[in-house]
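Q: Predict the bound structure with zinc ion.
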Amino acid sequence: MALEVPFEGGCMCGALRYRCAEAPAMTLCCHCTDCQRRTGAAFGITVSVNTSAFSTLKGETTSWLSIRQSGSKLLFQSCAVCGTRCWGDLPDIPESTLILGGTLDDAISLEPSAHIYTATKQPWVSIPDNIYEAENKPDWRKVFSS
Ligand SMILES: [Zn+2]
Ligand SMILES: [Zn+2]
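A: Predicted complex:
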């Protein structure tokens, strides 16, 4: 089932809630070691939405700025009560917000169109044939067009 719009999500304890009024621009699974570490899981699910369609419904956040080797910055926003990371703001690309896919109420309806950094993917994760895959840094035009 496709994700219905608008959609909502939030943290584990329920104190932090958000809403997005538009369909995601892109959903991808990232298998890099940073995403494995920050999630404690096999890969991160990143849902890119237009910041203009995204709003916080309730709750306080704490922020942490991640700066990757490439210099790209992501300001993670977590629930101030339970610590669940829910989304990241992009200081250099303020028109886009990156939601952490597992925090959607209807996360099961997400349809990732790309798997990236698969060079470090867990060997037991298999990727469907018809999905764009990049062993390392992706071609972003392909990620957004697929
Ligand atoms: Zn919480
Ligand atoms: Zn990653």
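A: The chain has one domain: 7-134.
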